[in-house]
TrEMBL record:
Name of the featured protein: Manganese transporter
NCBIfam families in UniProt: arsenic_eff
Phylogenetic placement of the source organism: Bacteria, Pseudomonadati, Pseudomonadota, Gammaproteobacteria, Vibrionales
Alphabetically ordered keywords of this record: Membrane, Transmembrane, Transmembrane helix
Transmembrane segments: 50-68, 88-113, 119-138, 145-163, 202-221, 233-251, 281-299, 306-327, 372-395
Length: 396
């Protein structure tokens, strides 16, 4: 029996490290960049910036968010009230969409296929949601993040009410015998529990120290001097922590399809607060590192100034932001938000992306009600174009 258990553990370890897990290719690529003298300094800078300027703030924001959401319960009285008040259904859906992450949108989709919410509520939640990119924007530029969330909420409410007025409350609802196949979101594979546990430990111990260093850095304080470290120590530590976070994320789930690469990992019901924080933070951090690194590599290889280059394409950028937002998953949207944070693309493109972006919620939406999900995505793209180009012509 002991031999069988040992054999199973060895097989599990081999499965986790095999190159079939395509997530591991990114850390391997980064290790190669660090081992190459000509790219080492650039890679350390990218990793350190991604950790101290993004990951630390995202982790702090997520800790507050999950701590609050864990205390919020939805009782049967709310469900009954929603069924009896179609106008309020849209407001509720927009509120759920405005919450950072994709959980609120998934809840609305499951209630829609149960016949408890209208199709306008689906349009409202998909219009209002920004997915995990909201955490990044709120952490990096809080005021802009709040403005974007508020605009998404308002546009979502108006779009949802208009759709319900045009189509009625029962429009596009699937037959009840088709509604429960994906109740447990079967599109999300099993999480590697040991990697999840280590991710939780990692952020549980690093949350407060990393937040302190990040805040000092934001005030342009030389943290190496404050802590009496040799010059460059904080940057090296940031690069090490970023790599560790990425490796832990890579071990959590194998990539067998597009969704595994661009969506956050499923959260087991037994996951602790810091495990939930770690899953989302490491996912966002990995995509931010990818965006920062691509930006630096393009700049170094071509000599282009992307901000200046994109400025010449400014009339097209809002459209591109909207089109990228139609791509399922949070990964592409995090790339867009990373470009905005680096002042490479304008706010109009960010707004268009935020409104058209459905995040990870589009995956269960397609599984639960594919026709409704497709039509709702198209509908959410219309106000995204209007808002982004309206902002562009008025303010940019």
């Amino acid at each position: 029996m002991a031999v069988q258990i040992k054999s199973l553990r060895i097989q599990e370890t081999k499965s986790r490290w095999r190159l079939a897990n395509k997530r591991l290719l990114f850390p391997v690529f980064l290790f190669a960049m660090l081992a190459t003298p000509t790219t080492r300094d650039m890679t350390v800078t990218v990793l350190a910036d991604a950790f101290w300027q993004v990951a630390a703030y995202v982790a702090a924001t997520l800790t507050l968010y999950h701590a609050i959401s864990n205390r919020m319960k939805h009782g049967s009285k709310l469900s009954t009230y929603l069924q009896d008040n179609q106008r309020f259904q849209v407001i509720f859906a927009a509120v759920m969409g405005a919450l950072p992450g994709c959980g609120g949108a998934i809840i609305v989709m499951t209630q829609f296929v149960r016949g408890r919410l209208s199709f306008g509520s689906v349009v409202a939640v998909l219009t209002a949601t920004m997915g995990d990119a909201a955490f990044l924007l709120l952490a990096a530029k809080p005021l802009t993040g709040l403005l974007t969330v508020a605009i998404g909420f308002g546009v979502g409410v108006l779009a949802g009410w208009l759709v319900d007025t045009l189509h009625g409350g029962t429009f596009m609802q699937p037959a009840q015998n088709e509604t429960f196949a994906s109740e447990n979101h079967s599109c999300t594979p099993q999480v590697q529990t040991s990697a999840l546990r280590w991710q939780g430990f990692f952020w549980q111990w690093l949350l407060l120290p990393s937040a302190l260093v990040a805040i000092l850095g934001s005030f342009q304080i030389d943290t190496d001097t404050v802590f009496h470290f040799p010059p460059g120590t904080i940057a090296i530590l940031g690069a090490l922590f970023a790599l560790t976070a990425m490796v832990l994320w890579s071990l959590s789930r194998e990539v067998s399809n597009y969704q595994d690469a661009v969506s956050e990992d499923p959260k087991p019901a037994t996951a602790s607060l810091f495990q939930r924080v770690a899953q989302d933070t490491n996912f966002v951090t990995t995509w931010v590192i990818g965006a920062f690194l691509c930006f630096e590599i393009v700049m170094r290889v071509t000599g282009w100034d992307l901000a200046t280059l994109f400025a010449s394409w400014s009339p097209v950028l809002p459209l591109l932001g909207v089109l990228i937002g139609l791509i399922p998953g949070c990964g592409p949207q995090i790339l867009v938000t990373s470009l905005y944070i680096q002042d490479t693309i304008p706010l109009s493109a960010q707004l268009g992306n935020a409104i058209s972006n459905d995040g990870d919620a589009l995956f269960p939406a397609i599984a639960l009600a594919p026709k409704a999900a497709l039509l709702a995505t198209v509908y959410s793209g219309i106000p995204a174009l209007l808002v982004s180009y309206g902002f562009y012509w008025l303010f940019e």
